[in-house]
Amino acid sequence: MTPSALEAKILVALASSGPLTAPELGRRCGPPASARDSALARLVAAGVITAGDGGKRLRRFELSSVGRRRLALEAALPDEVILTGEETNALLALVRAESRNGAGASSGAESDGGPTEGELQTMIVTRARALDQAGRGSGMIEIHALRRAFGDTIDRDAFDDALFELARESVIRLGKVTDVAGTSPDEREDAIHHPLRGLLFYLILVQQPGLGP
Fold it and tell me: Which end of the chain has less Cβ packing within 10 Å, N or C?
C-alpha cells in the first residue's frame, strides 16, 4: 500500500485518535472537504478503513483489521507527512501489536524463562544509561551498541518490543540516522527497520523513572 499524503494523514489520525468523524478528520488533516471525502471513499473501497452508521457528518471512520496490519507492516509514509510525538508513539504501538499478532505467539523472553517484559525494559534503560555514562553522556545511544551489550541473551523480537513499549511510554525516543552511508553493515543490521519511519538507529534517553541514580 502506498497512500497519498492526504490518505496517509487520515490513516495516521485514525491510528492515533480514531474512530473519528469526517469533520474531525478535516480539523486534523486540514484538506478541503471534497478532497477529504474522496480520500475517505478510496480508503473505504480499499477495505483499509470502515465507516460506521449515521449521516455524512456523524458516522465515524476507523482502521479495519486489514488497515491496521498494512499501516503497521507494509505502508511507507510520504516524506511530507510529519508525525507528532503522540502519533509516532501510537504507530510504534501499532507496529508492536501487529508484529506480535503476525507471529501468533508471545515473545520468547517470557516463554523460555527469560526476563519478563517489565524486567527487560528496566534492563535496557539501565544498560543504556551505563553506555551513555561511559561515552559522551549525550543521552543518545546506538541501538547497535546496546544490542551487542546484551549479546545473545535476549531474543531480538523481545528486545525490539521492549524498545517500542518504552518509546510509547515516552521513557525513550527512537531516532533515525542522517548519514546511512556512514554506518557499517553490522550497525544497520542491528538497527530497527521501521516500515513507517525508516532506519531507527538511536535510542535517546528521555526519563528513567524508578530506576535508581
Answer: C
Model-level pTM? 0.51
Torsion of CA 34, 35, 37, 39, to 10 degrees: 160
How is residue 200 written as a grid cell?
531507527
The residue among 126, 131, 190, 124 whose CA lies nearest residue 156 is 190
In a shared domain, residues 103 and 194: yes
Burial of 42 per CB tally in 10 Å (0-12, 13-18, 19+): middle
Question: For the chain, first and last CA: distance in Å?
Answer: 46
Q: Is residue 37 part of a domain?
A: yes
Distances in Å between the alpha carbon of 139 and those of 51, 142, 144, 163, 206?
44, 10, 15, 15, 8
Amino acid at 178: T
> Which one-letter DSSP state was computed for residue 82?
P
In tens, the pLDDT along 19-46 reads 999 999 998 887 688 999 999 999 998 8
